[in-house]
């Protein structure tokens, strides 16, 4: 069986998506750690991905980036197809949810998290909360009252994509059960996956501790310089 190389960092939601897809497909993957938290990653990725984003897959010389494209490729090539169904209308629905993650959900998260991680921004603005709540509302409607996953009762790659992103949003602004009961059900179903803790929760914990450290350092610096105390 071939061993894939995956340029990876567990703090990154799209990396966690692809890692979970490889687990769902029972594929062996060799993770190549990319130091996304410092500028060193640009050098590491310069001959691999001109867009310098992770994840990047290397399948015996075939290089592919973008978690959505990688997930679809892995299922198309290595099955089982139910993770990315072939039936035209079902696949169209999965594609819609994948584009939702790619075009709305993940960009919303990225816009909020990048200033926190790299530009000394602390806390969420009112506009951040409005944008997050809009994403929660959309996903709550996609789920409807009874389905297990975003496209019905079978899990697809769209679920794993949205799961890694929305669980990261949940870490920043918790999903309230009384406001978004269907979305909360989606999250709980995701948390029951056998590889969820090792991959997604582990990455979330790492990301959360990086953010906490930044807040603590900022608070100490403010106190040291005699400025007003910042609430975490
Ligand atoms: N649409 C892309 C987004 C990938 C992405 O933005 N990855 C971030 C880490 S979470 C990254 O590599 N950022 C570094 C950069 O943009 O230079 C995907 O799904 O793979």
Automatic annotation (TrEMBL):
<dbReference type="InterPro" id="IPR010987">
    <property type="entry name" value="Glutathione-S-Trfase_C-like"/>
</dbReference>
<dbReference type="InterPro" id="IPR036249">
    <property type="entry name" value="Thioredoxin-like_sf"/>
</dbReference>
<dbReference type="InterPro" id="IPR004045">
    <property type="entry name" value="Glutathione_S-Trfase_N"/>
</dbReference>
<dbReference type="InterPro" id="IPR004046">
    <property type="entry name" value="GST_C"/>
</dbReference>
<dbReference type="InterPro" id="IPR040079">
    <property type="entry name" value="Glutathione_S-Trfase"/>
</dbReference>
<dbReference type="Pfam" id="PF13417">
    <property type="entry name" value="GST_N_3"/>
</dbReference>
<protein>
    <submittedName>
        <fullName>Glutathione S-transferase 1-like</fullName>
    </submittedName>
</protein>
<dbReference type="InterPro" id="IPR036282">
    <property type="entry name" value="Glutathione-S-Trfase_C_sf"/>
</dbReference>
<feature type="domain" description="GST N-terminal">
    <location>
        <begin position="2"/>
        <end position="82"/>
    </location>
</feature>
<feature type="domain" description="GST C-terminal">
    <location>
        <begin position="87"/>
        <end position="215"/>
    </location>
</feature>
<comment type="subunit">
    <text>Homodimer.</text>
</comment>
<dbReference type="Pfam" id="PF00043">
    <property type="entry name" value="GST_C"/>
</dbReference>
